[in-house]
Automatic annotation (TrEMBL):
<feature type="domain" description="HTH lysR-type">
    <location>
        <begin position="1"/>
        <end position="58"/>
    </location>
</feature>
<keyword id="KW-0804">Transcription</keyword>
<keyword id="KW-0805">Transcription regulation</keyword>
<comment type="similarity">
    <text>Belongs to the LysR transcriptional regulatory family.</text>
</comment>
<keyword id="KW-0238">DNA-binding</keyword>
<dbReference type="Pfam" id="PF03466">
    <property type="entry name" value="LysR_substrate"/>
</dbReference>
<dbReference type="InterPro" id="IPR005119">
    <property type="entry name" value="LysR_subst-bd"/>
</dbReference>
<dbReference type="Pfam" id="PF00126">
    <property type="entry name" value="HTH_1"/>
</dbReference>
<protein>
    <submittedName>
        <fullName>LysR family transcriptional regulator</fullName>
    </submittedName>
</protein>
<dbReference type="InterPro" id="IPR036388">
    <property type="entry name" value="WH-like_DNA-bd_sf"/>
</dbReference>
<dbReference type="InterPro" id="IPR036390">
    <property type="entry name" value="WH_DNA-bd_sf"/>
</dbReference>
<dbReference type="InterPro" id="IPR000847">
    <property type="entry name" value="LysR_HTH_N"/>
</dbReference>
<dbReference type="InterPro" id="IPR050950">
    <property type="entry name" value="HTH-type_LysR_regulators"/>
</dbReference>
Amino acid sequence: MHIEKLEYLVEVAKTGSISKAAQNLHVTISAVSQAVSSLEEEWGVSVLKRSRSGAVPTAEGAVIIKKAVELLHKYEELKDAAQGYSNTVQGRLRLATIPGPMFLLEQAVLDFKQKYPQVKIEIAEQGSQDIIDNILNDKSDLGFIILFKDRLVEHLGVTFERLLKVKMVAATSIHSPLAFQKVITPGELKQQSVVLYNDDYVKWFMDDFQKKYGEVDIAYTTNNRSLISRACMNHLAVTVGLNYSFITEPLFAEDDTVILNFDLPEESPVYLGVIQQKDHIPSTISKHFLDRLKHDISALQQML
């Protein structure tokens, strides 16, 4: 019995389709079908019930497939151990992230590349939905997004692991009349000229804020951080963003910055996290990289 046959079987069970499994695995439909038939012949039991609408596990097959997933996890652990001794981790790592965490990833990627020079790393900065789609379609290995109450990703075929609890804050110049405050109320924000970074969660937060408290004077939204910085420093505008983003890459010098907490009712928790395909066995490379990133985030958590 070959490990590949188990991988084919698990992928068919996950997708509910031999053709979809073949597409995801980049092999022929015939190869997947023959692999499943070979296993059923070897084991003497029907594992999948095939029909025009797809392929679903039989009662016996569901138990067997669960064991197959467990065995594949153990096989990955075995490879991890072997590569740990040989120190020849190689392959590729495809990362997709919303703009904010890019600066969290930067040092982790450089350190990881230095330790594992044979790994090819690709990083794409995208919107949250594009990231979710790429994870589902196996175009990215790890995706970094913000999870909040209106975004449920577990049912989409991906898993979400929390990395960092975050919250929204406001930031402005030390010369602003708000500089002597520690918090900002909805009424005070509505009196300011606001500039925003073009980010999915920032947009959701501000839309929700305006529904609850009224319209905010948003001068503009941009991906140009220097435009936001100049508006705050030269025109005493206020910007809104996730707290960690002002630490990992400050918009302006620390002595010139005022960070204000929002005086709002307690909201549902918000997390920066990583998504992967559900029921997908993470690669050795992905696991090593996440371990390295979690080390950095643990240090950042002490600063928040």
